[in-house]
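Would you kindly consider the sequence and fold I have copied below?
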Amino acid sequence: MNNKIQNIVIAGGGTAGWMAAAAFSKLLGKNLKITLVESDEIATVGVGEATIPPIRTFHKLLGIDEQELMRITNATFKLGVGFENWGQEGKNYIHSFGATGKECWAGEFHHFWLHGLRNGINADFGDYCYELQAAKAQKFALSKNTPINYAYHLDATIYAKYLREFSENLGVTRIEGKIQQVSKDHKSGNISSLTLASGQVINGDFFIDCTGFRGLLIEQALHTGFDDWSHWLPCDSAIAVQTKTISDPIPYTRSIAHKNGWQWKIPLQNRVGNGLVFCSKYCSDEEALNTLTKNIEGDILTEPRVIKFNTGRRRKGWNKNCVALGLSAGFIEPLESTSIHLIMSGIIRLLRLFPFDGIYQSAIDEYNNKLDSELNAVRDFIILHYKVTQREDSDFWLHCKNMDIPPSLAHKIQLFKDTGRVFLDDGDIFRVDSWTQVMIGQGIMPTQYHKIADIMNEKELNHFMSSLKASIANAVENLPSHADFIQQYCKSNS
């Protein structure tokens, strides 16, 4: 396996394929030949239209101009996710990208907030988060004096096209065609070439599998294995449709829980992305479509698409001379917009471990160990939303409320209930603020808090809490509307 790697072949395009092509060509391209194979006849899923903040770091690394990208992809800003009817019907909260309040060495801000509640300061936890309050007020601006943590809503199909042009300008070769055969070396078991339906053979030293759910290389050729997580994440279907915009775009994704799943609403500049994620054991495609069409606004622009999926992941992200990215590596859930992030983090991890002078098992193991930690942490965070609910209005929610969950998540929930503490795992991409916003938002109130908060007397606590809340309210008051800021910063031409 210790031959020099000079020829990378990316199987499949879409968001995953072209993100990989863009990163490799920009950051490693002088030393490598990069070929991407895709077929115009194979449709991409193309509904991953919401992101989380680290995507901005990826774009900076590639030297991508934010304003240009946002204009081209009809993008809007995203400050978090609004959850409606999850913990209880009629109860809503926002999981924002911002830090809440101020913390000290011994405890995060929520300990001071809990201390305040016991002393008659009855403000919402979210009142102390700048991004959350800006999202609620539908306001946004970029300022050096008042930094704001944000991501994007964007058109995933146009995003892939943008990255394709970016990559081809840096020397990536795109070959059109369907992959008909994956050939392996008899001795090593490594992938040696791809044969297209046209008969063309594409040789490579290293292969990136971006073939979607099929996992043409990682699974069908290398038989890597799949860990099914549907016993923890029961939704296995989605229906996606686009609608005409009828109001100004809001700066957050809406996630609305329904009887047998949940609905997304993602506002772009020129349209709204809508979808219903559901469990086919409790709901037919027809029932799901009916629920979705009753709960969308604006004229429908596209034919509704039904997408079937299996929640889970490949047992290895890197197997022999192949790394899987995107849906070929697995699929957790679109609930917290982690799909594009997991593509990005896989690319960055591979770049850091890239086997220029040959593949070593230690590098494969390090990649897979870090991937395990990351995926398990994301999995637990998503399961949390389903498990911690008071809803009992359907068999679906009764199942979620009563289902067994991973021991790692059970411990995290119990620790928060008992002590108010959250400790992050190595692979956690969500911070303590995220865990506390979701757990409190869904109805978990700790029985105690860290007594470091008691160092403030009643007068000091009132001043501390009220000044924090007032400074956030004042900062939000001075922001322009999200729609007005988009108009002057990144207005789309389409």
Observations:
- The chain has a mean pLDDT of 95.
- The first strand starts at residue 7 and ends at 11.
- The chain is about 35% helix and 20% strand.
- The longest helix spans residues 361-387.
